[in-house]
Amino acid sequence: MISAISHPTDFSPEGQMAFLHALRLAQLYRCRLDLLHVRRPDEDDTFARFPHVREVLIRWGALEPGATVEDIATKAGVTVRKVEIRDSDAVDGLSTFLLSHRPDLLVMATHGRSGLNAWLSGSVSHEVAHATHIPTLLFGPHATPFVAEADGAVALDRALVPVATNPPAGRALLELHAITDGLPLALDFVTVGEDVPHLEGPDGHALPIRSIAGEVIEAILTEAAASGAGLIIMPTAGQQGFLDALRGSTTEQVVRRASCPVLALPA
């Protein structure tokens, strides 16, 4: 069950798609949505630049014109918190928030001034890696949205789930079922190569896993495009934490090239 979603934003146009998905998912799960922005201590207040949640919900028909701020929670089912974090380092500021609030899902763009590119540059502290050991929905530069900007309609019925013997996907599968429970989403499990792992669903039955051939990244991208998947879901492992696992990993490379969003799940 998802009870809280966080969306870090740098107010760039690239982040708008991620914001719309974070809001629509929060509406579907009827959960809290934290909109996060880090500003330097010497910067002016940026609160007015936060995404306008009420305007979007009115456009989607979830609220009536003239709705109040209170209606966002009572009628649309979303409790929104706009959090301005004052810190000279965006990664440190976000990690502090994440450590203390522990959202169930992060939704963020990977391009823009403080997307994943910025998070992956330079050294990453143990605290940041620990804080971001959280399922993360990532929108790369070529990702096609599954939430319509005009009316909030969701067009997502199939997800490709590449799995392997290493990393073991046990914990990731628990996260996966918590996130997708209640969504009309068909999960297509595949593995690249002939070493097919044995995985069980929440009912204890073995999951059907198809074997596909080719170089790992190319095979995943080709299969996602051929199957019409609107989402790629990837278990990701790392000795030091989630961001360390992403840096230079198969998941990061898939995110950068995929024509759909990628849900990265800590294994």
Description:
The chain has 267 residues and is α/β, with parallel strands linked by helices. The protein folds into 2 domains: 4-139, Rossmann fold, CATH 3.40.50; 158-266, Rossmann fold (3-Layer(aba) Sandwich). 32% of the residues lie in helices and 21% in strands. The protein has 10 helices and 10 strands. A 10-stranded mixed beta sheet has the order 3-2-1-4-5-10-9-6-7-8, sandwiched between helices. The chain starts with a strand and ends with a strand. The model is unreliable at 122-130 (pLDDT under 50).
List keywords for this structure.
Rossmann fold, 267 residues, alpha/beta, 10 strands, 2 domains, 10 helices, ten-stranded mixed sheet
Summed up, what is this model?
This protein is of the alpha/beta class. Helices cover 32% and strands 21% of the residues. The protein folds into 2 domains: 4-139, Rossmann fold, CATH 3.40.50.620; 158-266, Rossmann fold (3-Layer(aba) Sandwich), CATH 3.40.50.
Write the layout of secondary structure elements.
Layout: E1 4-8, H1 16-29, E2 32-39, H2 53-59, H3 69-74, E3 79-86, H4 90-101, E4 105-109, H5 116-120, H6 126-131, E5 136-139, E6 158-162, H7 170-180, E7 186-192, E8 209-212, H8 216-227, E9 231-236, H9 242-246, H10 250-257, E10 262-266
Parallel strand pairs: 1-2, 1-4, 2-3, 4-5, 6-7, 6-9, 7-8, 9-10
Antiparallel strand pairs: 5-10
Helix pairs in contact: 8-10
Q: What is the share of helical residues?
A: 25-40%
The run of helices and strands is EHEHHEHEHHEEHEEHEHHE
Low-confidence stretches: 122-130
**CATH homologous superfamily name of the largest domain?**
HUPs
Could you name the CATH topology of the largest domain?
Rossmann fold
The largest beta-sheet arranges its strands as 3-2-1-4-5-10-9-6-7-8
Average pLDDT level: 85
Largest sheet: 10 strands, mixed
Number of self-contained structural domains? 2
- Indicate the overall shape: globular
End-to-end CA span? 18 Å
